[in-house]
Amino acid sequence: MPVDVLSRNNVKVMGQGQRPLVMAHGFGCDQKMWRFVAPAFAADYRLVLFDYVGFGQSDLATYDPLRYSHLQGYAQDVLEICAALELEQAIFVGHSVSSMIGLLAAIAAPERFERLVMIGPSPCYINEDAYVGGFERQDIDQLLDIMEKNYIGWAHFLAPVVMQNADRPQLTQELEESFCSTDPAIATRFARATFYGDNRDDLARAPVPSLILQCKDDAIAPTEVGRYLHQHLPHSTLALMEATGHCPHMSHPDETVQRIKTYLEAASLGSAYG
């Protein structure tokens, strides 16, 4: 029996516009994390939200450990959603690891995408020679070891590091609860694909323009990573945000919306008059 992609990924379509805008959540999250920014685009776009298999309200029965042991498996999810909805020239907004998932999807099927918006992206999290990814390999090894041995403790430790913004503890609590609601084996496999992944060689192959939203104080994707991406992604725009932490769409939604809208409006004018 063919897989019902829209049910598998808990796809939700909303908005009054015609131009498709796809929002893809980050590691350990789900589509609810977009609730502070999505309404701002509903009047002008056809919004597509979804959960990766293994997260949120996706169909766990369709989870394939082999497929989802690397980011290409999640990129295939994106492409199958686009095919099911017959999306072309979509704007893809990806948080964190979804930025690279979106890039892989665009490389595989450039006709599906018009632009990529990357929130807190990183092509490689591990420091190597002159490249600054933010973590030493032993740091990642230890983090994943803790994840496998004490998943709840790992979630309790990592959530405040990712979210920051200690003045709003409810956001950290929500992120921790999101981590804890995920099957530990699925989360660990996704974490390995994320933190051991290296997409630096894929950057030059980007077929469409991109916006890089870089928070000024991000423990997961430091400023050096944003600058590296800007240097190696063709036709990219780097926006240094006032927002802090790794989830500005939750902690600083107004600035996140404004940055994305400003970019898309300028891009639209460029298409009209360029």
Automatic annotation (TrEMBL):
InterPro entries: AB_hydrolase_1, AB_hydrolase_fold. Pfam families: Abhydrolase_6 (PF12697). Residues 21-258 form the AB hydrolase-1 domain. It comes from the Bacteria. Belongs to the AB hydrolase superfamily. This is Sigma factor SigB regulation protein RsbQ. It comes from Phormidium tenue NIES-30.
